[in-house]
Structures are given as structure tokens and as C-alpha cells.
């Protein structure tokens, strides 16, 4: 049996991880789980899975959950705040941590888990985007596995397995193209939030759905792939693949290309990461190639979807520039979701922030500096509208 904590248990990845646990026939056990403020969902999880520990970021919500546990004789200890996240990420009783939080909030508990020598099932892109060098260095120091959960990085991870990394020539990251594939700038001037949330293939959270619509999601994945697989940015290629059947590919020095294909079901990479190095029984639908019929590939439009271009730029500059990119994007997406800016303003805000804060990029890459800069970038974005 593998015992795990899930950081961000009520989100899309967290919910699907619970489904994987239910279908594991006792081979996976939930020990700890965290949420922000979803009291009712956490209570349902306590009732069904009986985790010994839960954490709530919101202090008032933590008190509500504690009250429920006392009144219903639940043997669940409730933690709160960032200290609670860190505690549940580093419990003695667990083997692996699913980090499915969205945004910068995932960085500190991930580092705490690594220091506690817990393997990481990584579904939080921002952790490697803003602190890839720090996280991978700590993972190496403590002998911890970083197991990718994003479908694209899981595909690369699987395609590399058993091969000599020195023969890796290129990583090919596939992208669905999002809801606005084929559109030009003129078409995107009056895009509404509801339009941007309608992803054609995947069921994702609100923030990630907007990132997919701008192609920033793919940009963050480029930076993540750089750190996960020690691959130069020049050798990471994004290819638009609207069918979302090929989850990503790897090209080797002899020009052979190995791809991982599968249904559009995040439970597949979740199951693979949690059970690594084993493959478990069928959990999703199999592909019917007669029904698939064809696979198409296109070049991304970097002028219309500028966030992808900015992500490449930030990654190549390095240092704290990806922190600036990520912070500005998180703040801009939040403003768009709240209907305070237009869709195309997101890219403009990111680009301006990278220019305004460029003098900061060579500061030491420490947790304190990352958190401080992220905060200041977000404050700048909000104050500038």
C-alpha cells in the first residue's frame, strides 16, 4: 500500500486523484488532504475516506471542519493556514504527496515535502516555473523522485523511460490549441470570460482554462519541461495537436520519435505517477483508432498567442524572470476572470511586468526572494489597471 497526501484535494486534479484511490482496491490510501475554503467538500471526503489529517488554508473554515469532526466523533486532526499545508505535505506516515494546488501557493509545501524525503507527484506547474533550479537541486539532495502528473510531462517521462538521456535530441510538447485555435488578434478583442473557459477537450479549473486559452499554459509547461528533463529551450518544441490524443513526444539522436498516446483522461497520468514504477490495471477508456481516424499537427501562432512567446523568453533569461512572468500572469488572469480587463490585456500586462521588474532577475534564487518578488509583481499588476 502507498500512503499519500493530496494538496488541493477539492480541485480538478485532487478530485480525480480521489477517484484513482477508490479504484485502487486498497493499494492507495489517503492520509492527508488540504483545501482552501471548501468546507462541505472536505467534510464529504472525511466521511468517505477517513483521512487522519486535513488542512484548510482559511482559518474560519478550519474551525468549521474541527467543529464537525468533534460533533460527529471523527478521528481527523485539522490544521490551518500555510503551516497546515506544510504539515500535511511532510507527515511521517506518507510515502508520496500529490501537489495539485494552483499557483505559487504550492511551492513552499512542496519544498517541505522534499525535505521530509517524500516523493512528489507534481501537478503544480508554478513550482518548477518559479523555482525549478531550487526544487530539482533539493530533490537531488534528499533523494526524492519528482513524478510529473501533467499529461504532457507524464507522456515525456514515459517516452524517456529505459532510454539513455544523452541520446535525447528534442522534446515535442503537444497543445490542443485551446478554445481559440485558428483565431487572429482581431477575433480576440471582445472575448468574454465564458468563451475562454470553454476548453474543447479537457475539463480543468478556471485559472488553467484561461491559461490554455492564451497558450500560457503551454509556456509554463515549456519551462517545467526544461527543469524536469534537463533539456535546453531550443530543443523544446510546441506543436498544436487539436485531437489531444498524442500527449507529447520525444525525438532521439537517431531521429526516432517515441510518443505516448491515450484518452483525454487525467486519471491516467495520476495513476502512473502514484504507482510508479508499476503500471496498474485499466482505469480509463481505450483508444479506438478507427474512431480517431486522423491525427493533425500545426505550428502555434506566437503573434496571436503571445504568452507562449513570453514564456520562452522568460525561461531563456532565467533567474527570477520566470517568477515575474508567473506572478504577472496569475494576477492578470484573476483580473480577467473578475471582468476587470480584456482577454488581450493579459499578454500586455505580462510583457510590461517583465520590463518593469527586469532589474530584479539576478537576485539569489531563494524561497524568500521568490515569494517577495511574486507579491510585488502582483501588487504592481493590480495597481496598474
UniProtKB/TrEMBL annotation:
Role summary: Catalyzes the NADPH-dependent rearrangement and reduction of 1-deoxy-D-xylulose-5-phosphate (DXP) to 2-C-methyl-D-erythritol 4-phosphate (MEP).
Pfam families: DXP_redisom_C, DXP_reductoisom, DXPR_C
The DXP reductoisomerase C-terminal domain, residue ranges: 261-379
Pathway the protein acts in: Isoprenoid biosynthesis; isopentenyl diphosphate biosynthesis via DXP pathway; isopentenyl diphosphate from 1-deoxy-D-xylulose 5-phosphate: step 1/6
Keyword Oxidoreductase assigned: yes
EC number: 1.1.1.267
Listed InterPro entries: DXP_reductoisomerase, DXP_reductoisomerase_C, DXP_reductoisomerase_N, DXPR_C, DXPR_C_sf, NAD(P)-bd_dom_sf
Catalysed conversion reaction: 2-C-methyl-D-erythritol 4-phosphate + NADP(+) = 1-deoxy-D-xylulose 5-phosphate + NADPH + H(+)
Annotated residues for binding of Mn(2+): 150, 152, 221
Database matches in NCBIfam families: Dxr (TIGR00243), PRK12464.1 (NF009114)
Cofactors named for this entry: Mg(2+); Mn(2+)
Binding site for 1-deoxy-D-xylulose 5-phosphate: 125, 151-152, 176, 199, 212, 217-218, 221
Species name: Clostridium uliginosum
Occurrences of domain 1-deoxy-D-xylulose 5-phosphate reductoisomerase C-terminal (ranges): 146-229
Family, similarity comment: Belongs to the DXR family.
Alphabetical UniProt keywords: Isomerase, Isoprene biosynthesis, Magnesium, Manganese, Metal-binding, NADP, Oxidoreductase
One GO MF term attached to the UniProt entry: 1-deoxy-D-xylulose-5-phosphate reductoisomerase activity
Positions bound to NADPH: 10-13, 124, 126, 205
Domain 1-deoxy-D-xylulose 5-phosphate reductoisomerase N-terminal, chain residue ranges per copy: 4-132
Gene name for this UniProt entry: dxr
Phylogenetic classification of the source organism: Bacteria, Bacillati, Bacillota, Clostridia, Eubacteriales
GO biological process, one term: isopentenyl diphosphate biosynthetic process, methylerythritol 4-phosphate pathway involved in terpenoid biosynthetic process
The protein, known as: 1-deoxy-D-xylulose 5-phosphate reductoisomerase
Amino acid at each position: 500500500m502507498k500512503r499519500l497526501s493530496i494538496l488541493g484535494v477539492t480541485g480538478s486534479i485532487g478530485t480525480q486523484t480521489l477517484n484513482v484511490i477508490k479504484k485502487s482496491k486498497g493499494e492507495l490510501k489517503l492520509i492527508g488532504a488540504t483545501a482552501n475554503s471548501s468546507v462541505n467538500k472536505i467534510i464529504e471526503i472525511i466521511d468517505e475516506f477517513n483521512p487522519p489529517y486535513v488542512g484548510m488554508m482559511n482559518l474560519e473554515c478550519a474551525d468549521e471542519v474541527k467543529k464537525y469532526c468533534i460533533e460527529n466523533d471523527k478521528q481527523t486532526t485539522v490544521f490551518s493556514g500555510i503551516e497546515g499545508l506544510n504539515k500535511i505535505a511532510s507527515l511521517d506516515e506518507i510515502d508520496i504527496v500529490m501537489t495539485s494546488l494552483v499557483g505559487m501557493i504550492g511551492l513552499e509545501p512542496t519544498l517541505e515535502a522534499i525535505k521530509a524525503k517524500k516523493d512528489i507527484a507534481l501537478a503544480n506547474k508554478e513550482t518548477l516555473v518559479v523555482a525549478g533550479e531550487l526544487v530539482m537541486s533539493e530533490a537531488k539532495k534528499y533523494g526524492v523522485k519528482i513524478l510529473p502528473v501533467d499529461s504532457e510531462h507524464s507522456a515525456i517521462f514515459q517516452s524517456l523511460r529505459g532510454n539513455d538521456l544523452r541520446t535525447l535530441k528534442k522534446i515535442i510538447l503537444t497543445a490542443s490549441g485551446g478554445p481559440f485555435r485558428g483565431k487572429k488578434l482581431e477575433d480576440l478583442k471582445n472575448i468574454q470570460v465564458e468563451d475562454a473557459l470553454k476548453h474543447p477537450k479537457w475539463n480543468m479549473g478556471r485559472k488553467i482554462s484561461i491559461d490554455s486559452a492564451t497558450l500560457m499554459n503551454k509556456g509554463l509547461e515549456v519551462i517545467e519541461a526544461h527543469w524536469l528533463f534537463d533539456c535546453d529551450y531550443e530543443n523544446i518544441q510546441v506543436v498544436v495537436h487539436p485531437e489531444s490524443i498524442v500527449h507529447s513526444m520525444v525525438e532521439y539522436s537517431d531521429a526516432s520519435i517515441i510518443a505516448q498516446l491515450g484518452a483525454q483522461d487525467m486519471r491516467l497520468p495520476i495513476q502512473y505517477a502514484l504507482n510508479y514504477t508499476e503500471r496498474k490495471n485499466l482505469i480509463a477508456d481505450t483508444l479506438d483508432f478507427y474512431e480517431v481516424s486522423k491525427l493533425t499537427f500545426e505550428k502555434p501562432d506566437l503573434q496571436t498567442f503571445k504568452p507562449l512567446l513570453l514564456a520562452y523568453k522568460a525561461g531563456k533569461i532565467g533567474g527570477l524572470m520566470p517568477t515575474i512572468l508567473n506572478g504577472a500572469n496569475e494576477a492578470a488572469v484573476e483580473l480577467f476572470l473578475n471582468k476587470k480587463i480584456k482577454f488581450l490585456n493579459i499578454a500586455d500586462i505580462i510583457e510590461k511586468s517583465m520590463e518593469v521588474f527586469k532589474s530584479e532577475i539576478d537576485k539569489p534564487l531563494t524561497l524568500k526572494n521568490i515569494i517577495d518578488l511574486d507579491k510585488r509583481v502582483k501588487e504592481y499588476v493590480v495597481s496598474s489597471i
